[in-house]
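INFO batch 0412 | record 1 of 1 | parsing
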Amino acid sequence: MKIIQITENKKQYLPLLLLADEQEDMIDRYLERGTMYLLDDDGPKSECVVTDEGDGILEIKNIATDPAFQGKGYGKALIAFLETRYRGRYRILQVGTGDSPATIPFYEGCGFTRSHRLTNFFVEHYDHPIYEDGVQLVDMVYLRKEL
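INFO prediction complete | emitting tokens
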């Protein structure tokens, strides 16, 4: 297993990116300014994109694992990689996600705690309703952990 930084042709991984953020124009808002990593284990398994949000905050804008390989620790491995790589350079690692019973426990299991929320984010910024596990996503929930 290796994690590599992707600096060119980031859109070649659009199918993986769309798993975490299903509207391409939203991905376009952060993809080029973000740093992208790909976890390769006999082929691409997982990816993430992080951005510098200022004030010592590194934000995970997108993290996704190929559905055929979910539950095998690839997402947690990417988060552990980010913690190691950016510790000492940033104070906080944060992620914004939908208030979903599938997603929130994953981040909490990685040591994140709830920080704040942006009311109606998914309703106001996406051109269609977003559902995860049958639940419509409305608010963006931010979780944080200290690095």
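INFO post-check: The chain has a mean pLDDT of 96.
INFO record closed
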